[in-house]
Amino acid sequence: MVIEYKTRTQVVVEAIREKILKGEIKAGEPLRQAALADELKVSRIPIREALLQLEAEGLVEFEAHKGATATKLSAEQVTELFELRALLETELLRLAIPKLTDAELDQTELILQQMNDAYQQSATSGTWSELNSRFHLSLYRAANRPLTFEMVQNLNSNSDRYIRVHLMLAGGVTKAGPEHVQLLDLCRQRKVEQACVVLKQHILGAAHEINQLVQKLDADAGQ
Amino acid sequence: MVIEYKTRTQVVVEAIREKILKGEIKAGEPLRQAALADELKVSRIPIREALLQLEAEGLVEFEAHKGATATKLSAEQVTELFELRALLETELLRLAIPKLTDAELDQTELILQQMNDAYQQSATSGTWSELNSRFHLSLYRAANRPLTFEMVQNLNSNSDRYIRVHLMLAGGVTKAGPEHVQLLDLCRQRKVEQACVVLKQHILGAAHEINQLVQKLDADAGQ
DNA sequence: TACCTCTTTTTTGTATACAATATCCCAATG
DNA sequence: CATTGGGATATTGTATACAAAAAAGAGGTA
Fold first, then answer.
1. Which of chain B's residues 25-44 bind strand C, using a 7 Å CB cutoff?
2. Which bases of strand C have any atom within 7 Å of the beta carbon of a protein residue?
3. Do A148 and B77 touch (CB under 8 A)?
4. Which residue of A70, A192, B65, B69 is most buried, as measured by CB atoms within 10 A?
C-alpha cells in the first residue's frame, strides 16, 4: 500500500483549483495571499507556490507586486482555447485509434455509462464535468504522447469552468451524450478520419455555444 | 521611459534558464537550492519560485522532498517535442500568412540577414539560436493566437538546448539557411500550403538529426 | 561480504518577520 | 470641482529560522 504524502503546496494547489473550477472564485477576482493562507491554515509561502503553479496551468494570472487574479478569458480567448483543443485532441485521437485495445474501449464505455447515470440523477455539474474529461482523456492515452497529453489535460481544466457554467445555464449535456456514443462507436470501428471529424465538431460546437454564453454574461456584467 | 523593475525571482528564472540552455547545467543534473541561492546572492525563496516556473516551462523537474533536476529528454520525448512543434507552428503559419504585412516580412528578412552575419562570424551558438527563434516567431505573430503563440515559445525554448548542441557538434546551420530563405519567400508569395510543407520538413528534419545525436550521446554516456 | 538498523548529515518544505511596492485617502492648490 | 501630492494602509516580495523528510554513514549481525 502506497501512502501519498502531499506537501502543503500540493494540497493548496488542488484546493484553489477546485475553487476556481467550481466558480467559487469567479474569473477576474483577485486572490489575496493572506486571506487564502488564513482560510487554508498555512503560511503565505505554500500559497504563493501554489499560485505560481496555477499560473502555469493558465487558471491564474500573476502580476508582480499586484497579486494574482483568476484568469478571465475573452470570447476570442475562449475560441482560441477550444480551437487549440480541437487541433491537439484530434491529433491524439488519430494516433490513438489504431492502438486502442478492447479493454480500453470497454473502460471508456464504462465512463460513458457513469456520465449517463450522473446526468439522470441531475448530479452536480462538477462530477459530470470530471467524467467528461476522463472520457476524452481515456481515448487519448493510447496515443502514447505524454507531452501532448499533459497539454491537453491543462487545456481541458481551463475549458472546464466554462463548460460547467454552460451546463448549469444551458442544456449543454443533451447534445454531448449522443455525440460521445457516436465517437466511441467510430473508435471501435477504427474509422479514424470520421472519428476525428466528429470530435472536432464536438469540441467546436461546444465552443460556439459557450462563446455566446460568455458574450452574454460579459454584456450583462458590463451594464 | 519605462523602467522595468524585476523581482529577484524573475532575475533568477532568467539566470537559471540561460544556464540550462547554454549547457552550463546539463540535463539530469540536480539543482541544489542552497547552492543556487548562494551563487545568485538571494535567499532560497526566489530560487524555489524560479524553479517552479521553469518546471512549467518544462526545463526542470521538481520532485517533492528530493529537489529539482534539469529535465533530460529521451529520444522519444525529443521526437514528440518536435512533432508537436511541427503541428502547432504549421497551424500558426497557415493562419499568419494571409495577414502578414510587408513591413513584417521585411522585418523578418532583417533577422535572416543577422543570422547570416552571426554565422559568418562564427558567433556563439547562443546568438544564432536566439535569432533562429525570433525568425520563426516573427512569422507567427500575425496569426494573432496569443495562447498558441506562448505555447510555441515554450516548446522552442525547450528545443533550444538540443539545437545548440546540434549546432556545436554537427553543421546544423548549413541546411537551415537555405530553408529559411525558401520559407520566407513562400510567405511573400502567400503560398500557404507549400510554406507549411517546407516548415514541417524544416522542423522534422532538425528533429531527425538531433535525435541521432541524442541517441549517440546517451549511448556514449551509458558506457 | 551482504544486509539490516539506528544515527548523523544534508536537503527540502514552511512559518515568521521584515522590506519594498502599490493602493487608498485626504488635504491643499489651481 | 477636479487634480496633485504626500502620508497612512494594505499587499506583495524576500530573508531568516526552524521543521520535516531523504540521503549518507556507522556499527552490528548473519
1. 30-34, 44
2. 11-17, 21-23
3. no
4. A70
Size of interface A-B (CB pairs under 8 A): 56
Per-residue pLDDT at B197 exceeds 50: yes
Distance A65 CA to C27 C1' (A): 28
B190/B217 Cα distance (integer angstroms): 41
Q: Where are chain A's structural domains?
A: 8-70, 75-222
Q: B177, B119 in Cβ contact below 8 A?
A: yes
Query: A64 and B91 in contact by Cβ < 8 A?
Result: no
For testing contact with chain B, the best of A82, A148, A200 (most B CBs within 10 A): A148
For residue A99, which of A152, A44, A139 has the smallest C-alpha distance? A139
CATH architecture of structural domain B75-222: Up-down Bundle (1.20)
Q: According to the 3-state scheme, what is the secondary structure of chain A? A: CCCCCCCHHHHHHHHHHHHHHHCCCCCCCEECHHHHHHHHCCCHHHHHHHHHHHHHHCCEEEECCCEEEECCCCHHHHHHHHHHHHHHHHHHHHHHHHHCCHHHHHHHHHHHHHHHHHHHCCCCHHHHHHHHHHHHHHHHHHHCCHHHHHHHHHHHHHHHHHHHHHHHHCCHHHHHHHHHHHHHHHHHCCCHHHHHHHHHHHHHHHHHHHHHHHHHHHHHHHC
Measured between CA atoms, the residue of chain A closest to residue B143 is: A80
3-state secondary structure of B70: strand
pLDDT in tens, B129-174: 889 999 999 999 999 999 999 999 999 999 998 988 888 777 656 6
Query: Are A45 and B49 in contact (CB < 8 Å)?
Result: no
Question: Which chain A residues 17-46 have CB under 7 A to strand C?
Answer: 42-46
Q: Using the CA of B10, which nucleotide's C1' is the nearest one?
A: D13
Q: pLDDT class for A125, splitting at 50, 70, 90? A: low
pLDDT in tens, B39-58: 999 999 999 999 999 999 99
Shortest-distance nucleotide from B47 CA to C1': D14
pTM for this entry:
0.92
Q: Is the CB of B67 under 7 A from strand C?
A: yes
Lowest mean pLDDT across B13-27, B99-113, B115-129? B115-129
Q: Which CATH architecture has domain B8-70?
A: Orthogonal Bundle (1.10)
Of the given ranges (A7-11, A162-166, A185-189, B83-87), which has the lowest mean pLDDT? A162-166
